[in-house]
Amino acid sequence: MRKKLTLPLCSCLLLATGVFAQVEKKPSSLGFSIGFADFIAVQDIKNTSISDAQIGGFSKMNSSFVAQYWKGLTKNLDVSVAYTGSFINRLPSTFPHKPVDYFHALGAAVNLKMFQEKAPVNPFLTAGVEGYNYKDNWGVQSPLGLGLQLNPFRGNANFLLQAQYKLSYSDKNVNHLFYSFGVLAPLTEPKAKPVVVAAPPPPADTDMDGVIDADDKCPTVAGLAKYNGCPIPDTDKDGINDEADKCPNVAGLAKYNGCPIPDTDKDGVNDEEDKCPTVAGFPRYNGCPIPDTDGDGVNDENDRCPTEAGPADNNGCPRLEQFNFNAKNVQFATGKATLTKGATTELDKLVTILNAHPTLKLSIDGYTDNTGKQATNLTLSQKRADAVKAYLAKKGISADILTATGHGIDNPVADNKTAAGRALNRRVEFSVVQ
């Protein structure tokens, strides 16, 4: 029994330790609770398992009541003394000395709350020691459990819900569960702390500016009477007072009489940082307009060929036609991807153009008419585009700037129902992409 009693007693001592602070704590209070003692559930768990035991069934419980006294030691720690009376009519077969009509218990406990006293919902832990009696049998048990203190109206009265495991230290009793619900009210209302009202200070002029503090809107900073004891204002906080500031509502510099650095062209870049102060531009270009490096009227941000002049409708890139190149002269042997002599002559012009303009990148797109199967035409168009790319690469043009794509019968430029239309659709198109 001595070893079993050691753990609850140590728990009580640990819960009771701590420094007593000058904070709100529970006043002396009396309470009454309705309870239910369950002597059967613990035995069911021992005999079966916790999943099979019917914990909390009212048909196996004994009606009880609890009269108790509580007192706060600190803001989170209370002590309590309670008398519990149980009307016994449901006991396990293992309970000694049956039958039993009435079960008494008197003991003390410490209660550790999670929050301070006036919290609306306040969980707490309980540990204590009780003496019990039934018939001529006496013994000791320890209530260990959880509780919930409810204070919905933030007053001094509380509702208490508790669930405890009562650990017995002799064979005259069995370990059992105990549940209760009740109310706890203070014996006396707490006294309100007196409010100390400080005497008002005598009239003074702290900043010695000739305006007494009672009338001074800036009592710690010397000022002028016309500004109610405050200094001359600086509305825009630029360090230049409003009487000397030509732009009192906009922060500026002394060299501009309190006005901001001017922005002549109204582009959001002030003249001191603007490299084009009379022409509107952008901050990323230091106040200058977007440049047009190749002078083709398409600015560099929209120009896909910023170093090669070209029309706007071609995104600023040159058309090969302007270099006297005619893509219609690039022909192939019928049904083959073999370049004709005229085609190689025309492609030699393209080699000259690309060497003279090394920044250009070229897209080569092959097409066929609708004669034959689509798969065959797609393969043929790709081979023809590849043949052009291979010829240009052979002539020293980097393959990295060339893209060859076969499209088969897609995107016809003429009617495939006529021989003339089909001839126009059998083509290779060249376009500058950068």
Automatic annotation (TrEMBL):
PROSITE patterns: OMPA_2 (PS51123). One of its GO terms (biological process) is cell adhesion. It comes from the Bacteria. GO terms for molecular function: calcium ion binding. Residues 319-434 form the OmpA-like domain. Residues 1-21 form the signal peptide. Pfam families: OmpA, TSP_3. Its main location: membrane. One of its GO terms (cellular component) is cell outer membrane. Keywords: Cell outer membrane, Membrane, Signal. It is found in: Cell outer membrane. InterPro entries: Bact_OuterMem_StrucFunc, OMP_bac, OmpA-like, OmpA-like_sf, Thrombospondin_3-like_rpt, TSP_type-3_rpt. This is OmpA family protein. It comes from Panacibacter ginsenosidivorans. The lineage of its organism: Bacteria, Pseudomonadati, Bacteroidota, Chitinophagia, Chitinophagales.
